[in-house]
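Run log, item B.
One chain of 253 residues. Sequence copied directly from the ordering sheet:
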Amino acid sequence: MVISRFHLPATALCIFGLFVPIKAALADAFYAPIPVHDDSPDFLGHVEFGYTHLSGNSNSETFLGKAQLTWLQGAWLSRLRGEARHASEDSETSAEQYLVSFRQRRELVGPHYLFGFGRWEKDRFSGYDHQFTAITGYGRQLIDDDRAHLALEAGPGYRADILPGENDQRLAVAYGALEAGYALSDSATLEQELSLETTRKNSTVRSYTALDTRINAHMSLRLSHEIKHNSDPPEDAEAKTDRITSASLRYEF
């Protein structure tokens, strides 16, 4: 995995963890879980862990941990997710991020659905002590077949920005997202997720691109690239844009 911040040197990381490739009926969508089918499992999950240590001319250490649980109850699809990332170079921390989120999707008649999610995140170098976001809205499944899926969603929300040593900010949010996937072959899939959260203070764009190659029924290799851009971060922020490139081995349970 590579974690980099705009205007800062990139830190190279190598990640080997555990994943669960869910078939196109329930792919590992970051923003918008796609619709359930008659053969979708009632419960599934995955965990991912990575650690790297380099020494010699340069000394660096990296850690990645992820976990996700997804369960189905009638027309409701629920997902609980947690992530932690840490990187250091020459004993100096260069990245430290934590995230916990809970999301639900309620199927309606036809290609329509309702959704809601809450997300807590802490990024040591973002300029915020931590942030909490709650969003609800409407989604539409434009494509859903054996080889491809595409969903769009939008809705209002609320965000609390907790700033160290300053007054907290409570902001209304306008949210929009896209989730798409395509089966390149029987063993390879491509996922693209994109979201925009706009407030009166700034706009946050998140992009997640992933290529999965299945190894067996429970394991796959994932290559991914994640971008997070804040148009107007706090003055203490290291940069406006974070980029993370990962190679992960994941396992389903």
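Observations after the first pass:
- The chain is about 0% helix and 65% strand.
- The longest strand covers residues 92-107.
Flagged for discussion on Thursday.
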